[in-house]
Design goal:
2 domains; about 290 residues; about 45% helix; TIM Barrel; alpha/beta
């Protein structure tokens, strides 16, 4: 009887060992299986996760900064005799400065167009040129032989004809701008009215030193854009203007109320802007 009990106890113990062994083996397989799954998940995301990653927008790349090249002021002379180029003028969206002849048929209309388009307005004052060539003088051109009161009368009438002007430039005037007494009369009046003077630089000039002595704001033209009324020549002059602006920090170019000039500017100005040049009103270059 005792032998039977011992045998039965031994069977129980063996059964417990076997059961424990099975549990341990299954646990080992289960842990190994989990580890394999984790490795698979780390190596290859699910298809749903991959699609989500593809759909997420990429971070926008910063735009490269444009290289600043210099400031350019474009002045367009001789407005007032017609409205032929007004539509072309309106098509140019960059800053322009319009020099308008006073008391001409369309001076007032052009002045209003300039204001509506956001352009700057200056008086294009007719002054006496040298007479080597037979120039047709504008009505009420200021002459070096005029008395002071006559000069001031003409200047006052011209300024009143174009309200809102920021400054004055000379139309022709190669003789007048060499004359200290005459330009002294004009500059003293401009100082009272807080107007700057643009020297079109049509010849020898006393204007720079005289303006400094009297104390008025003064700027001088660097390039005439359209002495040749030819599209290729005008584009070449605009490039010359850009080169000066790049070297000096700014440049002033004078063109005229002409179709080819406006057409060239409309084509070239956007390209120059992309290249880093900034177009400004003439008054922004006053120092």
């Amino acid at each position: 009887m005792g032998h039977f009990k011992r045998s039965r106890n031994n069977n129980y113990i063996r059964a417990i060992y076997i059961l424990a062994g099975i549990i341990i083996i299954e646990s080992i397989f289960f842990i190994a299986s989990c580890q394999r799954k984790e490795k698979v998940l780390l190596k290859k995301p699910s298809k749903q996760f991959q699609e989500k990653q593809v759909q997420e927008p990429a971070e926008p790349k910063p735009k490269p900064q444009e290289t600043y090249q210099g400031k350019i002021a474009i002045v367009l002379d001789d407005w007032g005799y017609s409205l032929n180029n007004v539509d072309a003028l309106r098509g140019i969206k960059e800053p322009l400065t319009l020099a308008v002849l006073p008391r001409r048929s369309y001076s007032g209309t052009i002045a209003n167009v300039a204001k509506e388009a956001g352009n700057e307005l200056i008086l294009h004052l007719p002054l006496e040129p040298h007479r080597e060539k037979k120039y047709r003088l504008e009505p009420d051109t200021v002459l070096i032989t005029m008395a002071k009161q006559e000069v001031l009368r003409i200047l006052d009438a011209d300024i009143k004809n174009l309200p809102g002007i920021k400054g004055v430039s000379n139309h022709m005037g190669s003789l007048a701008t060499e004359n200290v007494p005459l330009m002294g009369i004009i500059f003293a009046e401009l100082k009272k009215r807080k107007l700057y003077f643009l020297d079109s630089y049509t010849g020898k000039t006393v204007c720079r030193d005289l303006a400094r002595n009297i104390g008025i704001a003064y700027v001088r033209r660097q390039v005439f854009l359209d002495n040749k009324n030819d599209a290729q020549s005008i584009r070449g002059q605009i490039e010359l203007l850009a080169k000066i602006a790049q070297q000096s920090g700014y440049a002033i170019g004078i063109g005229h109320d002409r179709p080819k000039t406006l057409e060239a500017l409309a084509k070239v100005m956007p390209d120059l802007k992309k290249r880093g040049f900034k177009f400004v009103y003439l008054s922004e270059l006053i120092r």
